[in-house]
Amino acid sequence: FDTALFELGLECGRLRRHHEETVPDMTSFAVFDTPIGPIALVWSDGGAPSHDSRLTHVELPKRPDESQAELIERLAARAADASPAPPPVVIVAAIAAVRAHFAGTLSSFEEVPLDFARTPPFHRRVYEQLRRIHPGKTVTYAELAALAGSPGASRAVGQAMGANPWPLIVPCHRVVAAGGKPGGFSAPGGAKLKTQMLEIEGVTLPSSRQLTLGGS
């Protein structure tokens, strides 16, 4: 047994923990154009290498002709500490997947890494189940509540949708009200954008009336 190597290992462990505790998260964003308007992806590296970057927020457009400058100004209210930066590899892949999605190569975005650090446990369960609802499919609030292990918690699911930091990536636009009605959509484009996003995925709802149920 080499005592010196053992002590060196302990010291390396202490230094690694100190690094993890003292290196701040770096929050950055990139904006890019799509057929529905500009979209911003915000990510954090958690003080780790860029391949560990995780998405913290997605900002959708209010309207197709919204400028990138307008979206960035709006984003500042949600992610004031974020700054523009060249996206790391995982975010480049996410941007490519979003662009391909709107070009007709539909994606479930399940491979996009998300930062759940500030996500309540119930919301996380709901989001993880929702990510399994693929393009071309929809789910009701009640059905999603049951999938998340909380049957009867439709209203809580609606609240989780309203708090969803990752619209499109966590596809809250695929959550509809009973009877196939659109339900609400808390993203800036509202129910009109929700309907448009579903139509891109081949889903046509019988009504575009926005309900008052909280969430998207």
* Biggest sheet strand line-up: 3-2-1-4
Question: How much of the polypeptide forms β-strand, as a percent range?
Answer: 5-15%
Q: What's the helical proportion of residues?
A: 25-40%
Give the SSE order as H and E letters.
Answer: HEEEHEHHEHHEH
Structural class: alpha/beta
Q: What sort of overall outline do the alpha carbons produce when their principal axes are compared?
A: globular
Largest sheet: 4 strands, mixed
Count every beta strand, where a strand is a DSSP E run of 2 or more residues. 6
- Report low-confidence residues grouped into runs of 5 or more: 1-24, 208-216
Radius of gyration: 20 Å
Number of helices: 7
Straight-line N-to-C gap: 60 Å
Structure description:
The protein is α/β, with parallel strands linked by helices and about 220 residues long. The protein has helices spanning about 5-20, 70-80, 90-100, 120-130, 140-145, 155-160, 190-200, and strands at about 25-30, 40-45, 55-60, 85, 140, 175. The strands form 2 sheets. Strands 3-2-1-4 form a 4-stranded mixed beta sheet, with helices on both faces. Strands 5-6 form a two-stranded parallel ribbon. Helix 5 crosses helix 6 (about 155-160). The longest helix has 20 residues, at about 5-20. It starts with a helix and ends in a 16-residue tail after the last helix. Residues about 1-25 and about 210-215 have low confidence and may be disordered.
